[in-house]
Amino acid sequence: MEEKEDNDNWLLCAWEEVDDAGFVKYKQSEWRTDGQIYQGDPKPEVTPDLEESGEEEIKLHGDVILGHLLMSWQPLPPHPPPHKLLIVLSAGSAPGVLGKVPQTPGDLIIYSLEDLKGCDFKRFRNKLSDFSYGDKLPIPRGKLENADWITTKDLLIDIYGEEGALDVTNKVFTLIGLMGPANYLHERREQNAKLKKTTHGNRLSDFSKEHKESTKETFQRIKVYNSRMGEAVHLQKRFIKLLMIKGPRNKEVKEKEIRSSGRRHLQIMEKRSPATIQTLFDPDEDGFIPKIVVLEGPAGIGKTMTSKKIMLDWASGDLYQDKFDFVFYLSCREINTIPGNISLVGLLSRTCRLSSDDLVSILKDPGSHRGLLFLVDGFDELRWTLEEKSEGCLDISMETHKEIILQKLFRRQVLPQSSLIITTRSLAMEKLNTFIDDSRNVEIQGFTRDDREEYVHKFFGNKEDADKVLSIIKANEVVYTMCAAPITCWIVCTVMNQEIKKDLGLIWCHTTTSIYLFYLEVLLTHHSKKEQSVHRKQTCLKKLCALANQGVLNQQILFGKKDLERYGLTLDEVESVFLNENIFHWDIRNQTCYSFIHLSVQEFLAALYYALDDGSGSMEDTFLPEICKGKSLHGFNRDSPHLALAVQFLFGLLNKKLMKTFSESTDINISLRARPAMKEWAMKDINQDFYTQTIFCLYETQDEDFIRNVMSGCSGLKLHSSNTGHLWIDSNYSKQLSYCLKTLKRESFQFLYFGWLTVGPECQKMISPLLHRCQKVGFWGCAISSKEDEDESSSSEDKIKSVNISFLMNPESKIQELEVYRCKMTLSCCDDLCSIITTNQTLTKLEVTLDDDEKMSDSEADRCCEVFRNAGFTLIKWEEGWEVSIDRRK
Q1: Is the pLDDT reported for residue 509 higher than 70?
Q2: Which of 138, 633, 796, 817 has the largest count of CB atoms under 10 Å?
Q3: Domain NACHT spans what residues (predicted)?
Q4: What pLDDT sits at residue 507?
C-alpha cells in the first residue's frame, strides 16, 4: 500500500467471510475520497445520540460500522451481501477508533503486516532476521524465509513477548523506511492502550461493584455465641462503636487502668483522645500515612465485630470509598483449616465470590494495588509451623504454604502498595512485630459509659426492659467495669433476658461469680484453640490460675517471662484469651510484661485456683485457702482489703449448682475441696458488726442455710463500708443485704445501723421494709441521696440539695430511736424531720446533726430553727452546724 499523505481521507474496512469448509477468511479494502464530500446514494444515516459524542453510526444494507467523526463523509464499498462487517479502521488526517473492544498485540501486528505490499513484507522479514532487541538474538532467517503474516506474528511474540513484539515491529518499519505503517501502528497502539485502559477500568469497576454487593450480603447478618441454625442478628442494628486509642501507654497508666473499677475506670478510659475507624489511615501530625494498621485488644473486646463492621460499611459505601476499591476479609481461624498449598488468588477466592480470573485481573493490575485493603482478622489464632524465614518474591497464582503467603503480605513483599488491617490479641504482638516494620498501633479498649447503655438498649429494643437491666448492672461495680468488654455485656444481657419480665425486686440477680464463670466458659468454648484437648486446656488453666493467685497474694499485676516460666508456662502454650502483652519504654530499652485483662479477672482466676480438680479426687480438704488471711472472715475484711474480691469469688465457688453447670459445659472439673474449712472460717468472731464485703461474700454463696448459720446469732446489724483494694464498697449493697436478712426469716430486728455508706433511692426502696421493723435505726456519715449514681464531679451544694429522708416516714413504722449523724443534712431538712416525728407514732427519740448551709439566708435559717422549736426539738449550735434532737420519753 502506498504511503498516505496527510490530507488524504481514507477508510479501511475489514470483514470476515466463511467459506464452504467453515474456515474464516479476513479481507480488507481501501477507498479514497481525495477530500471530496460524499454525495452518492445510499446516504449514510447519523444516529443523533452518537452525533453529540463525536461518533457516527453509519448504516448500510443493515450492517453497522462504528467510526470516528471524520472531516468529511466517507464513501463505502459496494457491500458484499454474504459478508459480515467486523471492524472499521480509519486513518489519514483523522485516525480511527478501533471499536469498543480492545485488540490484542497480535491483532495489531497482523493488521500492520497485512497492509504491506509483497515486496515490503519481504524487506520486513529480511531486516527482522538480523535485528537484535535487548538481550534477545535475532529470529533465525530460516524460520522467516517462507513465513506468512500469522507465522511472523507468532515468531515475534514467542521471542520478544507481546509488547516487545510491537516495539520490534515498529522499529523494523522505521529502519526500512516504512514510516506510514510505523506511524499507523504507533497511533493504533496508543488508541488501543487508551481503549484497553478504559475497558479495564470499567471491568475493575464492575468487579468492585460485584464484590461490594456480595460482601454486603455476607456481613450484614452475623451469628452470636448461642445462635441456633438460621438465627442471626443484623450487624448494623447490634454494633456499637468501641473506644480505640492510638499508640502505647506508659507502665503507670496501664497499672492504674488494670486496678481501677467503677467510676475511676470510666474516668481513665474516657480521659484519652480516641481514634475512630474512619481515621485509621489518616495522616498524623507529621504527614505519615500508614500502610499497616494493627488493632489489638483482649479476647471478647470486639475486634472481630469491628472487622466485620469495616467490611459492611465499605460495601455499603459508607467507609474508605476514596481510599480502597477492594477490601478482602481473611479470617485466620478459617485459614488454619486450609490443607496443603494454596495461592494468594486461591486464598482470596475462598473468602469472596469473585472468580479466580477476576481476582487475577485485579491483582495483576499495578494501578489497582493502592486501592487494595486486606483485613486479616485474628493473627493470634494462626498456627505457625514453618521455622525458616521465607525468601524471594511470590507470584499471586503460585501455590505455596499459606504461612508464606501471609508472611509476604505482612512484609509487603507481595502487592507492596496495598494496605493492611491486622487484628490480634496483645499476647501475639511480639510475634507480629517479627513480620512488620512500621505500623500504626491502635488498642481497642471497649465500651464507654454511653456505649454500654446504647448496647443494652439495642439488645432489648425496649426502653423499660433496658433501663431495668442497666440498673441491675450498675448496682454491681465489678461487673459494670467488666462490661467495658462487649462479651461481658452480651453475657449479662443474655442471662438477664430470661428474668426481665419480672418486677425489678423479684429478678434473680446473678452473682458476680456466676457472671465470671459464664465469661470463662465463653472464652474456653468460642475463643480458645480448637485443637487443644480438654486435659491440656485444664492443665494450662491450672498454671494460669496459680500465676494469678501468686500475683494477688503479692499484689502483682504485671508479670515477666520468668514469672510465666516459674509456673511452667510458655508463650506457645498460654491461651491468648487470658493474658495481654504490654511493651513499655524502660530507659533506653523496651520492657515486655504480661497482665490479665483486668485485676478482677486475675482475682477470679486466683479463686478458681483452689477449685480446679488436681486429680486427687473429691475428698474435702481441711486446709484453708492461702488467700483467706487472718483468723476469720470478719477480721480479714479489715486487715487484707487487697484480697477481698478474690475471697468473694471463692465464696461464690461454694455454690455446687454453679460449679456443676460449668463442669458439664466445659468438661473441666472444678470442685472447692476447702468448703468445710471456709465455712468454719466464716463462722468465727461473728458479732453485730458486718462489713459490706462480708455481706457480698455470703450473698455469693446463694446458700440460705449457710447464711442463717452465720447470721442467726445477730439480734441486730451494724453495716460498714469496706475496701477491696481497688474499689470502695459503700453503695449498691441493698440487694445483697436484703437477700441475707430475708434468709433469717425474722419479723423484726433490734437495731440496724449504716456507717459511711451511700443510701440512694433504690437502696431506700429495698431496705425500707426492714428498717421500719427495727427498734433502733442509725445512719453515720452516709450519703442519703435522692439521685442514683452521683459522681465525684457533683458539687457539695448539689449533694446537699439532693438529700432525701422521706423514706423514713411511715405511720406503721416500729422505729423507736432514730439517729442521723454527719449525713450532709442542713437546716433546710426541718420540714421533713418534723414530718417524720409526727408521722411515725412509735418514734420517741430523734437525734440529727445538721451542717451549715452557706447559701441559706439568715432569715431562712431563723425560720427553720423556729419550725424545729415549735415541733418540740432542742437545737444546739456548734462550730460547723447544729445538733437537733427530740426525746418524747421525757
Answers
A1: no
A2: 633
A3: 291-498
A4: 52
Residues 30 and 178 placed together within one structural domain of the fold: yes
pTM of the model: 0.67
Band the pLDDT of 87: cuts 50, 70, 90.
very low
Say if residues 377 and 306 touch (Cβ distance below 8 Å): no
Please report the pLDDT score of residue 745 as a whole number: 84
CA 606/CA 306 separation, integer angstroms: 31
CA dist 137 → 140, 389, 743 (Å) = 9, 38, 100
Count CA atoms closer than 13 A to 37's CA, side-chain side: 3
Domain encompassing residue 406:
275-446
Q: Nearest Cα to 338, choosing from 391, 405, 397?
A: 405
159/279 same-domain check: no
Q: Could you say which of 133, 157, 190 is where a domain stops? A: 190
Condensed to tens digits (0 to 9), the pLDDT of residues 166-219 reads: 889 889 988 888 888 888 888 888 887 776 666 656 677 888 899 999 999 999
Residue 417 sits in a domain whose CATH number is 3.40.50.300
- Total structural domains within the chain: 2
Task: Tell the burial category of 510 from Cβ atoms under 10 Å away from its Cβ (0-12, 13-18, 19+).
Answer: buried
Say if residue 182 is in the same domain as residue 286: no
More confident residue, 249 or 277: 277
* DSSP character at residue 87: E
Instruction: Say what percent of the chain tops pLDDT 90.
Output: 31
CA gap 51, 49 in Å, rounded: 6
Task: Indicate which CATH number applies to the domain containing 120.
Answer: 1.10.533.10
Per-residue DSSP letters for 310-371? HHHHHHTTSSSTTT-SEEEEEEHHHHTT--S-B-HHHHHHTTSSS-HHHHHHHHT-GGGGGG
Q: What is the DSSP string of 414-442?
A: SSTTSEEEEEE-GGGHHHHTTT-SS-EEE
pLDDT at 319 over 90: yes
Q: Does 814 reside within a domain?
A: no
Number of CB atoms found within 10 A of residue 53's CB: 8
Which of 55, 63, 73, 60 lies closest to 11, judged by CA?
73
Residues 180 and 282 in one domain: no
Residue 300 has pLDDT above 90, yes or no: no
Give the mean model confidence (pLDDT) for residues 15-36: 40
HSE at residue 337, side-chain half, CA atoms within 13 A, is: 7
192-193-196 Cα angle (round to 5): 80
Taking residues 654-679, what's their average pLDDT? 90
- Does residue 729 fall inside a structural domain? no
Query: What is the spatial distance between Cα 94 and Cα 97, in angstroms, rounded to a whole number?
Result: 9
Q: Which three cell numbers stand for residue 130?
A: 538480523
Q: 306 with 424, same domain?
A: yes
- Using CB atoms within 10 Å of the CB of residue 234, give its burial: 0 to 12 exposed, 13 to 18 middle, 19+ buried: exposed
Cβ atoms within 10 Å of 19's Cβ, excluding its own: 8
> Pick the residue with more confidence: 196 or 512?
512
Whether 148 is in a domain gets the answer yes
Q: What angle do CA 565, 569, 573 make, to 5 degrees?
A: 145
- Final residue of a structural domain among 190, 213, 231: 190
Is the pLDDT at 618 greater than 60? The verdict is no
CB crowding 589-622: b at 16 or more within 10 Å, else e = eeeebbbbbbbbbbbbbbbbbbbbeeeeeeeeee
Distance CA 413, CA 471 (A): 53
| Res 826 pLDDT > 80 | yes
Q: How much is the mean pLDDT over the chain?
A: 79
User: Does a structural domain hold residue 81?
Assistant: yes
